[in-house]
Amino acid sequence: MNYTVRVNAENVAGRSTKCSDTNFHTFPIRSEPPGNFSATALGQSTIVVNWTKPRSLYGQLAGYRVVYRVDGYNDSNSFVGVAAESTSVTIRGLSPRTTFNITVFVIAEDSTSGHVTEGLPAPYQLVTTAGPKRNIEA
């Protein structure tokens, strides 16, 4: 929303002249997270992440951001951008037998201001499947 404010003072001596207009813009509320969020391990190093569009969206849907990281490593995030018309993504090249924290964010754009907002997160945790058995000889 766009707002214009004019301020003047008033007391027993009278009313002051109005100061110049001050304009400001408030940013929209964040969109709800995607619904029906799930992730499935496919093999040892691939996961498929699925979701549905959020029920409440503030602005126009511009896409999604899927963030994933190894559990316990908060400083090492990777992400994938997903087009607005998609509701799934396949992530390859992951480490076997590893727990991943996955979060999907809605990206929306305010049609009036062009301001882009990131919606509330939808978190999920998944363990990739075990790698192949190896024969170890001493």
Describe this structure in words.
With 138 residues, the chain is mainly beta. It contains no helices and twelve strands. Strands 7, 8, 10, 11 and 12 form a five-stranded antiparallel beta sheet that branches. A three-stranded antiparallel beta sheet has the order 5-6-9, with no helix packed on it. The chain has a two-stranded antiparallel sheet with strand order 1-4. Strand 2 and strand 3 form a beta hairpin. The chain starts with a strand and ends in an 11-residue tail after the last strand.
Any chance you could write out the topology, listing elements then pairs?
Elements: E1 2-5, E2 10-11, E3 14-15, E4 22-25, E5 35-42, E6 46-52, E7 60-70, E8 78-83, E9 88-91, E10 99-109, E11 116-118, E12 122-127
Antiparallel strand pairs: 1-4, 2-3, 5-6, 6-9, 7-8, 7-10, 10-11, 10-12
Short description:
The chain is an all-beta fold.
Shape: elongated
Compute the number of strand runs: 12
- Count of DSSP-assigned helices: 0
Beta-strand percent range: over 45%
- Report the biggest beta sheet as strand number plus sense, adding barrel if it closes: 5 strands, antiparallel
SSE ordering: EEEEEEEEEEEE
- Model regions low in confidence, pLDDT < 50 over at least 5 residues: 132-138
Helix content: under 10%
Radius of gyration equals 24 Å
Distance between the termini: 71 Å
Category by helix and strand content? mainly beta
Mean pLDDT: 80
